[in-house]
Hints:
The chain is built from 12 helices and 11 strands. It is an alpha+beta fold. α1 (7-40) packs antiparallel against α2 and α4 packs across α7 (199-214). The protein is elongated, with a radius of gyration of 29 Å. It starts with a strand and ends with a strand. The relative contact order is 0.15.
Amino acid sequence: MAIKLNFDQVIFRVTTTYFVYQILSAIFLQSFVIFMIILTGFNVTIVFVTLLSSFGFIASLPYQFLKIKEEAKVLQFEGSEGAMLLTDVYTAFDLQELIGSKKIKYPNITKFVSDFFVTNEFKTDTFPYQVDKRRDMWVETGILKNTPVTLNFDTTVASITQPQSYGDWKIGDNIAVNIKFNSAFITMAELKARKDENPLIQEFYQYSTDLLTAWGYSIDSDSNDYFELFKNKMPGFYNQLLFIDRTESNFSNLDLLYPEEGIKPIDDNFFNTWVASRFNPALSSPGITFTGVEPLLEKEIADGGFVSLVALFARMFESFLYRHTSNYISATNNPIITSGATWESYISGETCLPQVFISTY
């Protein structure tokens, strides 16, 4: 059995009742205070009203305790899912109800991504490894181009923190870096130019501009502004949406006697760690750093490339949804264990709630 809230009916009844209650309470309270002032004087009335207000606070404490207790309740599911907070279950089903009825901001892109996650059964433990399927999803929206992008540049070694991995390499050695990405997100300029192409791009454009506005930026900001924004927001969200071709991505030391022996592969993990450490020095580097990386990254942000802000926003959009869709998948695919203390605790709480709040799927 799954639970959801009938929001329309609940909100209407609660709002109407509260409105009527407020009007009647205001009339009665005003009349009572005037009567007290006439009967006992101003000072005594002030003391009485203060006590009355404190009684109202005390009267709300049982509800607060009940609310805290309900938020701590769990439901036990069969299989490997184990226990799940009751509030997480409610949130997952309520969100699906809102998405299905499109009573949510950015309704089309949210429903598209949510349905894709649910259909492909993306769970929190497997989500980071579903890069190929997620790439197909973003290609379908139109904000990811399924065409290769190459990044080739020469640099020098700035530091080596894991000498055991690099043998005779030393600071100042000349390095050739060659990276191939199988796909790349469009630029902010392309997103703006294509905003009316379809409802998905239109809503993603609005979502992006809303984020930029909330952070004090604009869709028309120059690349320097975007670079600073990316530095601030990137470390927590940028990973897991890179499409590096491992067979054609590497860096090599040109100063070795036999350069072919100094070729090191580049994969998603190496690249993520390398780029993240350049944005945030507090993060550990993958054993080696190169000079002149920041101007290169700044240019890539402006041109789109592998560090487009659109990629960052897409990753953030995923993070807003996938935990809730994972909980929804777990709750719908695994029966609830209806024996034991957790179920008894849940039932005892639900029987106390008005039936207008509860219905079943």
